[in-house]
Amino acid sequence: MSRPMMKCGHSSNSYLSGNKPYCLICGCDEIADSPELDLTGRKMRCSDCGRIAESDQNAALFKYQPDQEYDKYYCGCYGWD
User: Fold this and answer.
1) Contact 20, 26 (CB under 8 A)
2) Residue 12 Cα distances to 6, 26, 50, angstroms
3) Separation of alpha carbons 76 and 9, rounded Å
4) For residue 4, which of 24, 31, 28, 33 has the smallest C-alpha distance?
5) Alpha carbons 23 and 11: distance in angstroms, whole number
6) Do 48 and 80 contact (CB within 8 A), yes or no?
7) By the 8 A CB rule, do 11 and 62 touch?
8) Which of 2, 19, 46, 69 is 20 to 30 A away from residue 55, measured at CA?
């Protein structure tokens, strides 16, 4: 199951009390009108190292950018701590 998309463009990366999806990056607690995306054919690029992969709503720090060539995410290139 995909994490819901938030109005800020990030996929949910945390939860508030009551299991409400939340974006820690932007402080957004509003779910997008279309919480599931069709990412067929889209690519995402790591914000740090530039690695390119198939867009995945469940990727770490995923941000959908429909007006850009690539969506954003973090591939783990600098570790997870």
Assistant:
1) no
2) 6, 10, 22
3) 20
4) 31
5) 7
6) no
7) yes
8) 19
Alpha carbons 74 and 59: distance in angstroms, whole number: 7
Which domain range does residue 50 map to?
1-33+41-81
Q: Tell me the residue type at 71.
A: D
- What does the pLDDT look like over 33-52, one tens digit per residue? 887 889 999 999 999 999 99
Count of structural domains within the chain: 1
pTM assigned to the model: 0.85
CA dist 6 and 81 (Å) reads 24
